[in-house]
Amino acid sequence: MNRIRGRSKLLALVVAGAVAVGLGTGFAAPLAAAARDVTDQFGFTAVRSGIPEGASHFELTSPDLRNGQRFPQSEVANIFGCNGGNQAPRLQWRGAPAATQSFAVTMFDPDAPTGSGFWHWLVWDIPANARSLGSTLPTGAVSGTNDAGLTGFLGPCPPVGDRVHRYRLSVFALDVPSLGLPSTAGLSTTRGAVLAFSMRLHILAFGRLTATFSQPAA
User: Which of 110, 186, 89 minimizes the C-alpha distance to 142?
Assistant: First the structure.
């Protein structure tokens, strides 16, 4: 215990010394900001990826979204005070491994102030010969339940005045034809955490693009 306290005191002295040096060199503000960033913030907790380290990458594009760019209003949510069109973006991919037996699609917001992110879109058991996903699901595909408790796609709607949110749209190539999760007529109450856990050992490769959205304070 004494050793741990000694290390804590040493760390505090190092941080204090760095800030003190920064005061004389013009770096005080960045150093202080860095010190604040290592403390816990409500609703912003890092989570594990869930993707195996050996998973390869393939190309994922969308005619409706550009990687790193803002969501169009037509795809923004139409609940929680947002008035967008809530249209799911069309996705297209190529280069998945030959051993792929099915695909899964997710949209996840790691910046949601929940401590666990926010799942916006879940689709799995997409046939291995599929190379795109549009408004109509392929035969056999299953649509899961997002974190708003709704089945299907839910567009972005971050809190007003919050930081810019990143929305990770991912297509996963899996080594099984079906994840065997419960469903009825292509619909399921399965949530994102269960889907991610269920497919984690079956991911061969993935494609990803990230879009952004924010709502500035009035």
Answer: 186
